[in-house]
Fold this protein.
Amino acid sequence: MVAEQKEDSALLTPFDEKLHDLEIYLDTVFNNTGDPIFVKDEECRLLLVNDAFCHIFGLPRDEIIGKTLAEKVPLNERDHFLSVDRQVLKEGKEVLCEETLTIAGEQTKTILTKKNRFVDPKGNYFLVGVIHDISERKRTEEKLKLAAGVFSHSREAISITDASATIVDVNDAFTRITGFSRSEAIGQNPSFQQSGRQSAGFYQAMWKGLLKNGYWCGEVWNRRKNGEVYAMMKTISAIYDEHGTITHYIALGRDITAMKEHQEELERIAHYDILTNLPNRSLLADRLSQAMMQCQRRQQSLAVVFLDLDSFKNINDTYGHSVGDELLIAFSTRMKEALREGDSLARIGGDEFVAVLVDLGSIEECKAVLDRLLLASSQAVKVGDVILNVTASIGVTLYPQDNVDADMLMRHADQAMYRAKELGKNRYQLFNKAQDDAVKVQRASLAAIRYALDNHQFVLYYQPKVNMRTGVVVGVEALIRWQHPIEGLLSPIEFLPIIENNPMSIELGEWVIDSALTQIGQWKKMGINLSVSISVNIAAIQLQQPDFTPRLIALLDAHPDIEPHYLELEVLETSALDDVNNVSKTMDACIALGINFALDDFGTGYSSLTYLRRLPANLIKIDQSFVRDMLDDPDDLAIVEGVIALAKSFKREVIAEGVETIEHGTALLQLGCELAQGYGIAKPMVASEIPAWIEHWKPDVNWQV
């Protein structure tokens, strides 16, 4: 066989040998060409393919030759795929067509095929085709198309600049938002839109961040073509080439003006009063804190001024809230005009306003502003056809003289304002630290007394009252004590003055009456007979209550086994009885129930004779201050003699307090006073000690002469 080949080779002419070599070269070129090449017969069947063709379909040559490979084309394109081949074979015209192939049942590729007809010497038709794989190009085109669509149809303004920040393109949203056309924007630096609301430092920082990080994001205030300033949320990104060099910048911006306006409106609602447009309590607190820090740096003073309209509620009730609102608006305008530049005014609710006066060098500067505020507030205001006349009460505290925090400054100014109202309104009052401390002590004391009353810490002690001549115990006086859990037993002087003219004194007074009635009942059950009564001190404020008599009847009804004549009420002669006539009527009503009255501490007040003449008390008590010194002081002795004489003249009984010695009792008996009480007779004692004392007590023999 080898010999035959050699023989055949030997038979080839030089020309034939060249042709043979050419075929080998052509075959080599054909199979090493990067683009797939194929030849089809008149039935569109593949006759010849190169290696690149096999590769693109992922099939060996023996599975390709003799096939049309139409199955590799999507079903809906197969007829068109074969019709193109037939058209080329029939018409002989070159066709360039784009086709989609399915590779390995999954992957799709887009190919661009150049098809042409070839006729051999025998007149046979062949279809020759060259394929270009354009899948990557198509994907790139799709991306570009998508990017172009995003660029064109984005609702955000997009601008592209070159590396020198010159605009090279903008989208439709940019022209819509800015008002500048594409031709007006291209070639410009983006700075042509600047509004002037942001400093050069802002833009320097923006570019510094952009160059450092490759992007920047933030709010920018720009100006539209029509001059309107608007806010934009902007993102700028740098575009780099393969060498890391910036080639372009792309900026995306969204118009957030409406959002910023809404945000500002919310902030205004949060920090400003809707009616007067003044700062509210929240913003005032912030401004006051800042002013205090500034005050410390400058070593000056500031004033917190609390203003409250006098009788504003009457205006609302009389004319309605709409008129009241108009008054508040007018008032706030006048107050602002009365203040200095740099001062602040806020409305913190209702008819309450607070001003902060800053940079005060002296109290006189503050007083000048306060005088203007009072004058402005007292001027008449016309609302419609109504003329309104109002005034204001003003409280003031100075910082750092009042060295507390912002919240306490407000409270102190508020307290001073209430003091101004108490003093008659239409005035200002400076906060007084000593007075405030006294108020705090008063409040603490009232709270402690309230707690003591609620927790049964008060007790009654009893001091006997006797007839020194006959030796009869005519009664006892109930004396309140506070059994303090820490401080021990406290006398009335340590707590009764605190609740004077306070409603709590009424409650405590009723507790004393109720406790005394309860004690009378207990002594009665023990067989102790008090000839007269238990006397109870009663405060003027309690006696002057319009419902005093009904409340006393209710207390008596709670002790049905106790007859009213066992109760004696002692009225202090030093009490300020505003309406003696009504007090007298109240006493008459109580006397009709069987209750007795005594005038206590007689001779120490300014209305002794008036009270003696007009108040139906059947017993007069000589104050112990006169009795105690009567043996040594002729004046006190004269007073005691005078009181005893007055009692006899007015047909009243008389009893002396403060009998500390036998000599006191002897002197009183000589003056005609037989009833007495005091340490010389007995000290106040708890209820359980009274029975034994009564049983063993005897008057001094000197008193029985």
